[in-house]
Specification:
The chain is an all-alpha fold. The protein contains 10 helices and no strands. It has helices at 2-7, 9-41, 45-58, 63-74, 78-102, 106-114, 119-152, 162-170, 177-206, 209-212. Keywords: Membrane, Transmembrane, Transmembrane helix, Transport.
């Protein structure tokens, strides 16, 4: 195992960087899309129910099957990987964004409007900061989930550590096959822990002190 790691150390670091980059960029994209959609639907009960239903049903789609379906129109490589990871990343964030925005006390919103704040300023300066801890909780759940899904995108030749896993599984029983699988799995777990710690730090920095208290 040590020999395997030593011979491929630079490759493991590069694949780990690709894996983390894919997940982080897709998380940012998913967060933007989810928050925008949540701000458009949270004032409507029917649209809120629809958004929650979509997020629930979307999680039942097998990620492996979705990757396979995207190979035909988009081919192999980064594009299907980004689409799949962003899609699954957006689902928990969307649900939490809707919950966070709808859970704000109406009296707080009325107070903001009462002092002359427009609806947009109320959303940006009052509602979104108050909903941010709930949204961030969804981002943390999403990050852990898609860290594993990003490994599966190696089936479509996506970037990241999944290549070690699929390479090892394809020749299981051969030389270094088990070491390859273990390396990919353990590296994904380590990256997931690192990303979660970074998100915890982000929460401490970006959450208003009054809300933390």
């Amino acid at each position: 195992m040590l020999e395997f790691l030593g011979d491929r150390f630079n490759q493991i670091l590069f694949s780990g960087w690709q894996h983390m980059s894919l997940v982080v960029q897709c998380l940012i994209l998913a967060t933007i899309l989810s928050v925008v959609i949540a701000t458009l639907v949270y004032r409507s009960g029917a649209l809120t129910s629809l958004a929650n239903s979509v997020s629930a049903v979307g999680l039942t789609i097998p990620s492996f099957a979705l990757i396979g379906l995207l190979i035909a129109p988009f081919g192999f490589g980064v594009t299907p990987a980004v689409i799949v990871v962003t899609f699954f990343a957006a689902l928990p964030i969307l649900r939490n964004a809707v919950v966070g925005l709808t859970g704000i006390d109406k009296a707080v919103i009325e107070s903001a409007r009462g002092i002359g704040m427009s609806r947009f300023r109320t959303l940006v300066q009052v509602e979104l900061p108050m909903a941010w801890p709930v949204i961030l909780a969804g981002i943390r759940v999403s990050a852990q989930m898609v860290m594993g899904i990003a490994a599966i995108t190696a089936y479509a030749l996506g970037p990241g550590l999944g290549g070690f896993i699929f390479s090892g599984l394809s020749r299981l029983g051969g030389a270094n096959s088990l070491e390859s699988v273990i390396t990919g799995v353990v590296a994904v777990i380590i990256l997931a822990l690192i990303l979660d710690l970074l998100l915890v730090g982000l929460g401490r920095i970006t959450t208003p002190r009054g809300i933390r208290v």
